[in-house]
Amino acid sequence: MNTIKNDFPALRQRIHGKALTYLDSGATTLKPQAVIDALTAYYTTINSNVHRGAHHLSNLATEAYEQARLRVQNFINARTSEEIIFTKGTTEAINLVARSFGEAYIREGDEILVSAMEHHANMVPWQQLCKQKNARLNVLPVLENGSLDMEALPGLLTPRTKLVAITHISNVLGTVNPIEEIIARAHAKDIPVLVDGAQGIVHSRIDVQRWDVDFYVFSGHKLYAPMGIGVLYGKAQLLNDLPPYQYGGEMIDKVRFEETTFNVLPYKFEAGTPNVGGAIGLHKAIDYLCERNLDELWKKEDEVLKYAVNQLQKIEGIRIFGTDGTRGGVISFLLEGIHPYDTGTLLDQMGIAVRTGHHCAQPLMDFYQIPGTVRASFGIYNDMQDVDILYEALLRVKRMLS
Ligand code: PLP
């Protein structure tokens, strides 16, 4: 009996008359009732702005918001809570670093290294920064099996390399990259590393101090929390030296028409009214996961994922991408002779939610010379039965379209 499913009210829906089989957690996870209740409670009671009001509810909001920061600090083992900046999500966190780090440190002729499997969110901001600064975007290649070409790494870490920006787990292939090795090699040349943890934090324990990572970013909504809240972790000494990303309320110290001085961390990077409800929801989501023994949940999720790979491999003419032996959360595949959109549309008719297309990784699609894939991605609520439903449905798709 899968009791976790009961915690997610969205799973009680029927789609096109069929029970929903949700296999799109890589795009966004469903929310447990506990998180929805926490959001409702915030908006029905506290509903105040933070750090400003002298009144009781504002103090409660400030307290809850800062408790959420402490919870995130503890969850990823950051040294201090000032190293946790709340953002809209991964995309905003990367843009923040690109803009701010770029302004401070990137000069003409400098280099930034990304990989060929990056989500556009961890590629386009660096590409545009390089254009503005006449810098160079280098790309660590991907091998056919979906792993990074680690032999190419030393040659790409040059004296001009100012930052490495790399994903922990590929949202397309599921490849789990050797982040600790990449960080060690970059640090040996004094190059800081930003890790895109949008998919990573959802499937594995993150300890930013053990990794010694310089920046780590993720989105709440992929971690069973609401949309519109995310995190930029950065080492305090790095963040302290960076200029603000946006200007306005909250991030200032003293404002005169001649000159403005800025607030301390983390507020320096949190201009304007923050997403207080979202932060509270993120706090609740982390609590929810940890109270249910997250390592056990991940172990079960991994068993389901392995079973899925095993089953899907039995389908004649299926091509599964990412075959290097590592896999976190996702399976991308194509059925021979069938366009991914057609597969996705038919699966939807059968109540199965998957994602089709380029998954915001067009350069990776170009590498494989394909228009896109079908991606089934898994969360803690998925079970073997969901895999059986997908497997049978794919056999039906094949019978209908082959
Ligand atoms: N990076 C990766 C690896 C992702 O999978 C995603 C979203 O799918 C993002 C970045 C962007 O996340 P968001 O849209 O929440 O900012």
Plain-language structure description:
This protein is an alpha/beta fold. It folds into two domains: 2-28 and 293-396, Aspartate Aminotransferase, domain 1 (Alpha-Beta Complex), CATH 3.90.1150; 36-290, Type I PLP-dependent aspartate aminotransferase-like (Major domain) (Aspartate Aminotransferase, domain 2). Helix content is 39%, strand content 17%. The protein is built from 13 helices and 17 strands. Strands 4-10-9-8-7-5-6 form a seven-stranded mixed sheet, with helices on both faces. α6 links the parallel β7 (161-167) and β8. α3 packs parallel to α4. It is globular, with a radius of gyration of 22 Å. Pyridoxal-5'-phosphate (PLP) is lined by residues 89-91, 119, 121-122, 167, 171, 196, 198-199, 219.
Write the layout of secondary structure elements.
Blueprint: E1 14-15, E2 18-19, E3 21-22, H1 33-46, H2 56-76, E4 84-87, H3 90-105, E5 111-115, H4 124-133, E6 136-140, H5 153-156, E7 161-167, H6 179-187, E8 193-196, H7 208-211, E9 215-219, E10 230-234, H8 236-241, E11 252-255, E12 260-262, H9 276-291, H10 294-313, E13 318-321, E14 330-335, H11 340-349, E15 352-353, E16 355-357, H12 362-368, E17 373-377, H13 384-401
Parallel strand pairs: 3-15, 5-6, 5-7, 7-8, 8-9
Antiparallel strand pairs: 1-2, 4-10, 9-10, 11-12, 13-14, 14-17, 16-17
Helix pairs in contact: 1-9, 2-9, 3-4, 10-13
Bound molecules: pyridoxal-5'-phosphate.
Strand order of the largest sheet: 4-10-9-8-7-5-6
Q: For the record, what is the CATH homologous superfamily label of the largest domain? A: Type I PLP-dependent aspartate aminotransferase-like (Major domain)
How many strands, which pairing sense, and closed or not: the largest β-sheet? 7 strands, mixed
Number of strands: 17
Report the bound ligands by name, code or SMILES.
pyridoxal-5'-phosphate
Output the CATH topology of the largest domain: Aspartate Aminotransferase, domain 2
What is the H/E order? EEEHHEHEHEHEHEHEEHEEHHEEHEEHEH
Q: What's the total helix number?
A: 13
